[in-house]
Structure formats: C-alpha cells, structure tokens
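Try this one yourself first.
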C-alpha cells in the first residue's frame, strides 16, 4: 500500500512560549478557509491517556496491541507502543495539512515561537525555519517575523505554500 504523507508544519519553541495558542488559532483560521487540518502534540514523557480500571484499559493490559474506544461523539485508538511522527502521519494522509506542536529537532518546515532575546540561541539549533512568531521584532534576523495576531499573513506566506508544495489543494484528498 502506497502512502503519501500530508504536508506538515511544526510549531516549536520553549515551554510556555505560546505554541498551543498559535496552533489552535491557526487551526480555526484554516478550517474557516475550508481546509481539513490535523494536529499532533509531542509529549516527551510517559503518560496514561486511558482511565486505569476501565474496560478499554483492561483490554490493553491484557496484551491487545491496539484497542479502539468508540463513543457516540468521538473515537480513540490506543497503540501498545509509541509511534514515530512519520508513522503517525499515515493516519492523517487524507488531510490538507498537519500542524505539529513540538519535535523541535525534526526537519519539517517550522514556525518558531520566540518570547525574547533569551530565545535567540534556539534559532541556531533548528533546521527548515519558515518564520518566527515574536512579541517584538528583532533586527537583522534572516527569517520573516510575524506577530501572534497575524494569522492571515502567516496563512498566506507560510501555510499555503506548504500545503501547495505538498501537492494538495483544498478539497482534494
């Protein structure tokens, strides 16, 4: 089976830099424009997403490799192991774009959240930066800088080129 991953934009930055706020604003903006958007959040520690003692948790504890929990309003699939981002993107292949919060060190196109000059060293460690989202503009940086409220500009200058470079246009999939 052939798999074509969807276009991806990472939103990266240090803790409490505004990544989630920007991501959710961009999701709303893009869906208002008619795009189908997925999101992935990287959590770098272990966690339990299911409720211990519940039936679906017991299914997993008994050794099931995959467990689905289907409700009237939503669905979840639990895997018995972690997935790499590339493996997870398989489940998002029919979407126009996937916004990923985190995974700083991967090579997908990135928007970098910066709160101040103390965040400048991060820029030297990252690849594929498409823009920087700042509270106050920095002189002499080689990347375009955006305010958090410039959603239309970010969409036009950063997201739409990524979507179209990824070979998908609105409504295809």
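Now uncover the answer:
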């Amino acid at each position: 089976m052939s798999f074509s991953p969807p276009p991806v934009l990472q939103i990266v930055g240090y803790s409490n830099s505004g990544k989630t706020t920007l991501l959710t604003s961009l999701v709303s903006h893009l869906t208002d424009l008619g795009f189908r958007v997925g999101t992935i959040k990287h959590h770098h520690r272990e966690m339990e997403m299911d409720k211990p003692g519940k039936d679906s948790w017991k299914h997993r504890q008994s050794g099931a490799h995959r467990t689905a929990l289907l409700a009237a309003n939503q669905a979840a699939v639990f895997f018995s192991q972690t997935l790499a981002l590339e493996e997870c993107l398989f489940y998002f292949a029919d979407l126009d774009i996937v916004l990923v919060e985190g995974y700083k060190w991967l090579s997908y196109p990135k928007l970098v959240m910066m709160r101040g000059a103390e965040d400048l060293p991060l820029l030297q460690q990252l690849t594929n930066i498409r823009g920087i989202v700042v509270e106050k503009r920095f002189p002499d940086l080689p990347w375009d800088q955006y305010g958090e409220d410039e959603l239309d500009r970010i969409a036009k200058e950063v997201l739409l080129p990524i979507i179209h470079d990824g070979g998908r246009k609105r409504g295809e999939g």
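Discussion: Residues 33 and 170 are 9 Å apart (CA to CA). The two ends are 16 Å apart (CA to CA).
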